[in-house]
Amino acid sequence: SLNYAVMTRETLSISNFFVENSKPGGGGYNVVNVILVDFRGFDTLGEITVLAIAGLAIFKLLNRLRLFMPHSDGEGRAWSPDRYPAILTSISMTLLPLALLVSAFIFLRGHNQPGGGFIAGLITAVALILLYMARGVEWAQERLNFPFQPVAVVGVAIATLTGLGSWLLGYPFLTSSFGYFSLPLIGTFELATALLFDLGVYLAVVGATLMILANLGKVTTPHRPVTDPKTSDTHDTPNEKESH
User: Fold this and answer.
1) Strands 178-183 and 187-192: what pairing?
2) Nearest-5° angle of CA 156, CA 159, CA 161?
3) What is the mean pLDDT of residues 111-137?
4) pLDDT of amino acid 221
5) Quick one: DSSP state of residue 174?
6) Other Cβ atoms within 10 Å of 52 Cβ, number
């Protein structure tokens, strides 16, 4: 009877509050994104902080780990002589700028339409990981040539500073503001401080995702080093001992 009473009693939903106050209170029509970066911004700040910490921890675990890829698959068949897929290698450089452009579009429209910093960050991360898959870890790292750890840290810092800015102005932590501006060639447009917070989310997602996936790609080296066949099955190589 107690379960029945609890399950059948009328409950008040707070969803109507968010729907009604999304535009007047947060300056955006995308209710989900306004909740993430405005109404429940503190929760989102905690989530991207955990994401960045997890990315750093996984990076530390994988940074010096090395495994050796066998010369054949489980059924004894040799691997393909082509190290990287030819089609993927050919189209990767064409897809990269297109994916980054889509990512920027998704990021900028997220306050009023489906999108936002989180999904834009995932699109950017996938676009960059595509280079690792198509060209190899060494090739991608030579051209990107910057660590991803600071990207995640800077993202969390930007999101935190956005909240501190409103705090210093006498408003509660992470209170957002928005306004409308006009430019001669562009016309009237909206700017919200939540965009800076969303930028922090974007950078944290990109940094954490690439810290994990880019390092997973270099864990396995192409082949086991050549050793004495009499001892190769019973003794670890120096690299294997280090990986243990």
Assistant:
1) antiparallel
2) 105
3) 90
4) 58
5) T
6) 24
Strand pairing class (67-68; 220-221): parallel
Scanning the structure block, which residue is given the tokens 């919200």? 192
Output the DSSP codes for 111-161: TTSS--HHHHHHHHHHHHHHHHHHH-HHHHHHHH-S-SHHHHHHHHHHHHH
Helix (H, G, I), strand (E, B) or coil at 67: strand
Partnered with residue 192 across adjacent β-strands are 178
Torsions phi, psi for 89 (to 5 deg) = -65, -35
Per the structure block, which two tokens stand in for 173? 């932590």
Give the residues across from 183 on adjacent strands: 187
Rg of the chain over CA atoms, in angstroms?
24
Provide the b/e sequence for 27-40 (b: ≥16 CB within 10 Å): bbebbebbbbbbbe
Please write the tens of the pLDDT for every residue from 52-107: 999 999 998 888 777 766 677 677 777 666 677 778 888 888 888 999 999 999 99
Please answer whether residues 54 and 61 qualify as being in contact, where contact means their C-beta atoms are separated by less than 8 angstroms. no
Hey, how many other C-beta atoms are within 10 angstroms of the C-beta on 199? 19
Mean pLDDT, all residues of the chain? 82
CA nearest neighbour of 29 among 116, 159, 118: 116
What sign for the dihedral angle of Cα 32, 34, 35, 40?
positive
